[in-house]
Amino acid sequence: MKEGPAIAAVAALIGDPARTNMLQALMATAALTASELAREAGVTPQTASGHLGKLQAGGLLSVEHQGRHRYYRLAGPDVAAALEALMGIAGRVRPQRTRPGPKDDVLRTARACYDHLAGGLGVSLYDHFLAGGRLAARNDELVVTESGRRFFCDFGLDMAALENRRRPLCRACLDWSERRAHLAGSLGAALLGAMLTRGWCARPKGSRALVFSVAGRAAFESFCADAGAGDRVADKVQRVGRIGVA
How many CB atoms lie within 10 A of CB 50? Predict the structure, then answer.
């Protein structure tokens, strides 16, 4: 008997079209009810209930009870990363289901991959972190350097708290549209949270797209430049970190 994880069982759960639509819908928002997921999948509530039970039992979904409602969400960032990787494979080996349009361009530029920045801007930011020595690959692992730790602290992130979480601090996540890596992990989530809080970008309800304002895009580009410049601009990072964009 073969040993190791039951990949086929998980693949079968994801492979059903209705369940795929449910999982993709949860990539765009934090949580949805069974009725909302039934509409996303194009199935009856009874059928949706069966699918959701299987996804929950398979460890792909978690459920939260609030009053009379149950809210379903992806079980964790690893599930989102797996779905993102599968989107990249599907886009490479099979034709797109719909012709790319303006909405696709927005998603390619910037979108949320579960809780971190993806798309062209996410890949660009990751590249600047590597170029500036803020992140480094060591023993096949992505790590935050001492320079990077100072940089992120100056930006306003609580690195001590992030480092003490059970979730990995930083991880390279393959971007399905760019076919290159962007930053995931608790650090990637904290960075996107800071960008949203400071008003650099906004996330329309029910969409994975991240829309940057003109001022927010300028602040983002300045942050990327500082990230890629090493410690020569440490004082400027603090100024960028304090920028508030309406």
Answer: 13
Write out pLDDT tens, residues 223-242.
Answer: 999 999 877 544 444 444 44
Q: Which fold has domain 7-75?
A: Arc Repressor Mutant, subunit A (1.10.10)
Measured from the Cβ of residue 122, the count of other Cβ atoms closer than 10 Å reads 29
Q: For residues 83, 88, 90 and 96, what is the CA-based torsion angle, rounded to 10 degrees? A: 110
Q: Is the pTM higher than 0.85?
A: no
- In terms of C-beta density within 10 A (0-12 exposed, 13-18 middle, 19 or more buried), how is residue 17 classed? exposed
Distance of CA 237 to the CA centre of its chain: 24
The pLDDT value given to residue 96: 53
Q: Is the dihedral of CA 146, 150, 155, 160 positive or negative?
A: positive
Question: What distance in Å separates the CA atoms of residue 76 and residue 14, rounded to the nearest whole number?
Answer: 15
